[in-house]
Amino acid sequence: MAKTLSGEKLEKELARLEQMREYENTYAACAMICGIDEAGRGPLAGPVAAGAVILPKDCTLLYLNDSKKLSEKRREELFVQIKEQAVAWCVGIVGPERIDEINILQATYEAMRQAVAGLGVKPDLLLNDAVEIPGVDIMQVPIIKGDAKSVSIAAASILAKVTRDHMMVEYDQLFPDYGFAKHKGYGTAAHIQAIQELGPCPIHRRSFIRNIWSEEAESKE
């Protein structure tokens, strides 16, 4: 009975993954299809990261899905598998100072361009999660909620998120009073309280915390 159940689960998972290959199948004439996705547009601190991944045509990564739908353990497992099996992959990183300088959307585009440029193999097609990247001379297909509809974008989302999460854990060692290892820079109540009590640290996005903390307010204390 256990073997039969295992077989049924496997069949169901393979069918789900096949549904997530809709766009890859539609553009199968393209030899090198690259998925693009970002992580970290919303946090108050840390960089924005963008993943770019070209998977082999016959690649089957069980449980591959939108990174937000996966447990941390599953993401970590897939992170290793994706890097091992990908034809090419890269993660672009843009830090908080640059985010403050050019705004988060432009910083996200910059991270995406970095990721594409760092592949080492030029893709024929970019499957992007929701956006069209300016300044890229490759055909692009923006897909709303693409990280749940394309295996390539899902793989990119995992690389971007896990890479950024690892960075935030490292930042937690440098700035232990803010709890970065737990909330990864997002605006939790504990994080906001820490900013209000301690002021920002070097990786905070000043343009994101104007309603929480200001130099003027600090100077009056």
From TrEMBL:
Q: Reaction catalysed?
A: Endonucleolytic cleavage to 5'-phosphomonoester
RNase H type-2 domain spans which residues?
A: 31-220
The gene for this chain is rnhB
Q: What is this protein called?
A: Ribonuclease HII
The entry's a divalent metal cation-binding residues are 37-38, 129
Cofactors: Mg(2+); Mn(2+)
Q: Give the protein family.
A: Belongs to the RNase HII family.
GO CC terms on record? Answer: cytoplasm; ribonuclease H2 complex
InterPro entries from the entry? RNase_HII, RNase_HII/HIII, RNase_HII/HIII_dom, RNaseH-like_sf, RNaseH_sf
Q: What does this protein do?
A: Endonuclease that specifically degrades the RNA of RNA-DNA hybrids.
Write one Pfam family the protein is assigned to.
Answer: RNase_HII
User: Bound how, and how many: what does the cofactor note say?
Assistant: Manganese or magnesium. Binds 1 divalent metal ion per monomer in the absence of substrate. May bind a second metal ion after substrate binding.
GO process terms (BP): DNA replication, removal of RNA primer; mismatch repair
One of the record's GO molecular function terms: RNA-DNA hybrid ribonuclease activity
Query: What CDD domains does UniProt report for this protein, alphabetically?
Result: RNase_HII_bacteria_HII_like
Query: What are the subcellular locations of this protein?
Result: Cytoplasm
Main subcellular location of this protein, as a coarse class: cytoplasm
Q: Tell me which species this is from.
A: Enterocloster lavalensis
Keywords on this record? Cytoplasm, Endonuclease, Hydrolase, Manganese, Metal-binding, Nuclease
Please state the Enzyme Commission number of this protein. Answer: 3.1.26.4
